User: Which sequence fits this backbone?
């Protein structure tokens, strides 16, 4: 605005002085603004660096004496049981769960003689190790016994249920998700039973059998049983997040992400109908035309992205690890927020962190190339960020397609869930996990995180707000593809570290 005023007087000799003055004023103002901006930048950056949450200072602990190859052998054997969950429960081979229980009983007799072992709905296992102080709230460590199907076995380098140990890795379905956790929890507890150790707090190992199909018969039933017994855990730890190495851009050290919340899940089914008929005289309102218009509007209007809540908390812990330029940008969100958001939106992983995601997952229509179909149907799967709800997402979709003749059929209600509550990062339970990660994985920094999928732990919200999701597995970006994918495996070294972690954690809960 100022510049155009200057130009309009440029030919007037008298006003040239005025122009000159204006330019000087303009330059001075610009300079002042620049200094002010820089001042705010520097002050904000300094404040943010000074206030950046630091890492717990703890001494690394010495390792327990474990027989790594025996540990690996036992995990490999557990992998051989095809405890596969299918949506259609008639397809599930429940006998194999019983067989696996027998294997655990035969392999860890001391565990069964020292702990109280019970089942819920026949196949979920609960180990209870009575604590010395029965007035203290218990600790609940969770994992699940079931696995997802392997797909075509021929696509695997090693058969998925052979339980083979090759090149320093234990291969097979469940090695990462979640028999690694299940068996290392059992090993850690068994190790401690064999020592003089007695837990101060009662310890529960909760091993659900149907996590991959929603956890209704396992975790949910166990949670109800705990509720009826007034069990309010001091800490619940389940799978969900892990130690990521070289995955977070700009962060060189491995990061132990403790999931303090998990996203919700909802599915919306859309249906468009029309008269149908011969394809030689197609009308504008053919069912596929209507539905694709609706889907396009939905795709172009995603739910809003925000750098708040868990994502904000996570970045505050990661910031000291990031390059100075990034820290300056994050410290000055009053100016750079749109830039930060658009950068995070550009990557699927970070986009999922800052918004409820929209995924078109099925589209059904048509029977023949020259026939207009009478109906078209599509499914949209949403993963809900804390703050959004199943209702708010449905409202968002309804508003977008309001003027189109499309029906909404809310489906898959069985699996629909609102986002979890956000667990505190100043609770004793969180601090204990934080400490244990830094004791056992000494070069690792710790930050809170958001779990993008779902875990059994969401069924325990009625018992405590101290629910955390972390498995002591070190993941590189290559490993991520193996989860629910091909060639799932864990290194013998990493698996032994998992056992070290759980031993240390159980000991720490007794301090
Ligand atoms: Zn899992």
Assistant:
């Amino acid at each position: 605005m100022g510049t155009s005023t200057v130009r309009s007087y440029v030919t007037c000799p008298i006003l040239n002085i005025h122009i000159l003055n204006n330019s000087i004023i303009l330059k001075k103002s610009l300079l002042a603004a620049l200094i002010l901006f820089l001042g705010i930048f520097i002050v904000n950056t300094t404040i943010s660096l000074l206030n950046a949450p630091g890492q717990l200072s703890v001494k690394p602990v010495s390792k327990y004496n474990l027989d790594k190859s025996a540990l690996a052998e036992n995990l490999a054997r557990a992998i051989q049981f095809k405890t596969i969950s299918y949506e259609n429960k008639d397809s599930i081979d429940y006998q194999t769960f019983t067989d696996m229980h027998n294997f655990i009983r035969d392999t860890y007799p001391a565990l069964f003689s020292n702990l109280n072992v019970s089942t819920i709905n026949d196949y979920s296992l609960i180990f209870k190790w009575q604590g010395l102080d029965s007035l203290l709230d218990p600790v609940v460590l969770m994992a699940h016994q079931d696995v997802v199907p392997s797909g075509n076995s021929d696509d695997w380098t090693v058969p998925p249920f052979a339980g083979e140990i090759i090149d320093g890795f234990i291969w097979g379905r469940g090695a990462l998700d979640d028999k690694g956790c299940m068996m290392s929890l059992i090993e850690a507890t068994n190790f401690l039973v064999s020592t003089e150790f007695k837990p101060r707090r009662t310890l529960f190992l909760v091993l659900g059998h149907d996590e991959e199909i929603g956890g209704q018969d396992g975790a949910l039933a166990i949670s109800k049983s705990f509720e009826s017994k007034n069990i309010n855990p001091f800490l619940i730890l389940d799978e969900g997040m892990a130690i990521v190495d070289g995955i977070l851009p700009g962060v060189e050290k491995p990061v132990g992400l403790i999931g303090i919340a998990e996203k919700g899940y909802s599915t919306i089914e859309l249906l468009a109908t029309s008269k149908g008929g011969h394809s030689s005289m197609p009308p504008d309102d053919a069912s596929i035309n209507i539905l694709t218009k609706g889907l396009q509007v939905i795709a172009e209007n995603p739910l809003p992205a925000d750098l708040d809540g868990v994502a904000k908390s996570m970045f505050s812990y990661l910031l000291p690890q990031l390059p100075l330029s990034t820290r300056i940008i994050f410290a000055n969100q009053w100016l750079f927020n749109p830039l930060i958001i658009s950068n995070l939106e550009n990557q699927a992983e970070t986009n999922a962190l800052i918004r409820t995601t929209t995924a078109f997952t099925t589209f059904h229509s048509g029977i023949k190339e020259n026939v207009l179909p009478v109906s078209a149907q599509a499914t949209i799967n949403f993963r809900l960020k804390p703050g959004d709800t199943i209702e708010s997402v449905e409202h968002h979709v309804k508003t977008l397609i309001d003027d189109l003749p499309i029906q909404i059929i809310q489906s898959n209600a069985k699996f629909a869930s609102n986002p979890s509550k956000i667990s505190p990062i100043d609770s004793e339970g969180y601090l204990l996990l934080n400490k244990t990660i830094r004791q056992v994985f000494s070069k690792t920094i710790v930050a809170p995180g958001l779990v993008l999928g779902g875990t059994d732990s969401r069924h325990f919200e009625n018992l405590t707000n101290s629910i955390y999701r972390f498995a002591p597995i070190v993941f590189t970006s290559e490993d991520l593809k193996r989860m629910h994918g091909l060639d799932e495996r864990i290194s013998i070294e990493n698996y032994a570290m998992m056992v070290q972690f759980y031993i240390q954690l159980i000991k720490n809960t007794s301090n």
Summary: The CA atoms of residues 201 and 509 lie 7 Å apart. Confidence is low (pLDDT under 50) at residues 1-19.
